[in-house]
Amino acid sequence: MKTQDTLIVDGREVAIEGEPNLLELIRKAGIEIPTFCYHSELSVYGACRLCLVDIEGRGIQASCSARPESGMVVRTRTQEIREMRKISVELLLANHDMDCPTCPKSRSCKLQDLAHKLGVDKVRFKRTHKPKPVDHSSPCLTRDPNKCVLCGDCVRACYEIQGIGAIDFVGRGTSNQVMPAFGKDLNQVECVGCGQCAAVCPTGALSPKREVNQVWRDLENPAKTVVVQIAPAVRAGLGEFFGSEAGATCTGKTVAALKALGFDQVYDTCFAADLTVIEEANEFIQRKTAGERLPQFTSCCPAWVKFTEQFYPELRHHLSTCRSPQQMFGSMARELLPNMLGVKNEDLVVVSIMPCTAKKFEAKLDKFIDADGVADVDHVVTTQGLARMIEEAGIDFANLPPESFDMPMGFRTGAGILFGASGGVSEAVLRYAVEKISDMPLPSVDFHQTRGEEGIREVNLEVNGMMLKLCIVHGLANARTIAEQVKAGQCDYDLIEVMTCPGGCVAGAGQPVSIGRQTIRQRAQALYNNDKTVQIHKSQDNFEVARCYSDCLGDVGGDKAHKLLHTHYQNRRAVINQANSCKGAPALAPTQATCAACEKCGAAV
Amino acid sequence: MTATVTCDYAKVQSILDGHGNDPARLISILQAVQAEYRYLPEEALAYVAEALNLPPARVYGVATFYAHFALEPKGRHVVKLCDGTACHVRGSMPILEAIRKRLGLTGEKVTTDDMAFTVETVSCLGACGLAPAVVIDEEVHGQVTPEQAVTLIEAIIEKDKEASHV
Ligand code: SF4
Ligand code: SF4
Ligand code: FES
Question: What pTM was estimated for this model as a whole?
Answer without folding.
Answer: 0.89
